[in-house]
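Today's session is about reading a structure prediction critically. Students often jump straight to the picture, but the first step is always the sequence itself: look for stretches that repeat, for charged clusters, for runs of hydrophobic residues. Only then move on to the predicted structure, which in these notes is written as discrete structure tokens rather than atom positions. Here is the chain we will use throughout the hour.
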Amino acid sequence: MENKMIQAVILAGGLGTRLRPLTYEIPKVLVPISGKPFLSYLILMLAENGIDDIVICAGHLGEQIVTSVGDGGELGCKIRYSFEKELLDTGGAIKNALSLLDDEFLVLNGDTYHPIDYKKLVEFWHNRKAGYDCLIVGYENKDLIVPNNIRADKAGTVEEYSKKELADGCCVDSGVQLFKKNVFNELPPNKRISLEKDVFVSIIRRGKMLSYITGIRYYDIGTVERIKAFEKYLQARKN
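Below is the predicted structure for this chain, in token form.
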């Protein structure tokens, strides 16, 4: 595990309801951004960080994802797919893909782009993972792009997580986590299971979630306004 970069799972099964009617026709992860599907930016970012083993959890219009990015060869990585016959939510999707996964793996929301140094993230995890089952990446959120929703103690152990907002939160979930596979071993198969509402709650209750807090901003494509912010970021990176 120490000698190779970590495996990544991309959650790409959502319906993208806030981007309808566009997402009636294409999956959210393939929404075009500056002439390319969003997912290609995400995969290229991972490949640039040395992450070349990727599993995509696909659901809604998943066959279009396969057509778009294929086996990943043109993007510098190896991509495999886990398909949901019925929507299983985020935790259920990972459980459904378990046979493809290593003992430890990154999880990224398919609609979120966080350009951090993933090698540093994995090194941080390896130095701190004894006693933890999961790591969550938080953005310091000094510009308050959205409400904070994570509270952690001075040691970095997460004490509380909210899907919406925590008045005393220290940062906001950026859509990147790192898990030990055994977290999912005992979950029931083929059931709708939420990472945030079900899996996180259990891990935090046991004091087993570690935080990694960064000042590097993340971007998502949840709304038209946020797509414009990501396009602005891409343009600034070119210049």
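Discussion point for the tutorial: The first strand starts at residue 7 and ends at 12.
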